[in-house]
Amino acid sequence: MVLMPEPVLGLRERKRLETHRALATTAVRLVAERGLDQVTVEDISAAAGVSPRTFFNYFASKEDAVVIAHADSAERTQRTIAKFLAAPKEVSTPRAFVDAIEEDFAHVDENREEWLGRMKAIQENATLHSRAVAMNHDTIAPMIEAIARRTGVDPKADLYPALLLSALGGAVNATLMLWYQHDGRISATELLDEAVEMLLAGLPEPGGRAR
User: Which of 55, 39, 56 is nearest to 127 (CA)?
Assistant: First the structure.
């Protein structure tokens, strides 16, 4: 695994990220408890100790407050891509990808109740599901380009970058769903490792796998 230095943040930026996190975690908790339709921006703001005006400095809607866990999502994606591209050449491309997103899965494990609530809300509300899909869509093209760059192929002429990202994205989704179904009592990070190992082994049928 390649360790990348975390950015040094000033006081103002740290405060911005902390306020965003407070609003996001509050929104998730309230929606998980009451349901999306029974929670307002005013409810979230009051519970987080800020004004609705401050809320709208961070989110366009209550739906975004539930779905967007981090204020620096775009920067986090760029750091993930940088980690991926910096991985040693002897590390396989799928493994380099998993190593690059390991921090995100560690965050899921470390913030179990928040992510259980977020996934519950997304599962139960089509509008939240659509918003989450739209957010993930924004990362597809940069990741395909990064895979193409690492493997030295033309993403417009070679299936590999898009196909690998689709396969790994499926592994991520399957991992999170199983983690959610187990109420977060198993490690999301370990599950992801297992999923990728299955992919690399050619997805052997369960009867042929060691248990």
Answer: 39
Between CA 148 and CA 160 the distance in angstroms is 8
- First-to-last CA distance in the chain? 27
Q: Report pTM.
A: 0.85
Segment 81-90 mean pLDDT:
96
- Domains in the chain with CATH codes: 13-71 (1.10.10.60), 72-203 (1.10.357.10)
| Average pLDDT along the chain | 91
Measured CA distances, 18 to 38, 58, 140, 145, 204 (Å): 25, 11, 27, 32, 44
Q: Is 75 exposed, middle or buried (0-12, 13-18, 19+ CB in 10 A)?
A: exposed
Both structure tokens of 123: 């599962």
Which residue in 137, 136, 164 sits closest to 148, CA to CA?
164
- Residue 19: count other Cβ atoms within 10 Å of its Cβ: 18
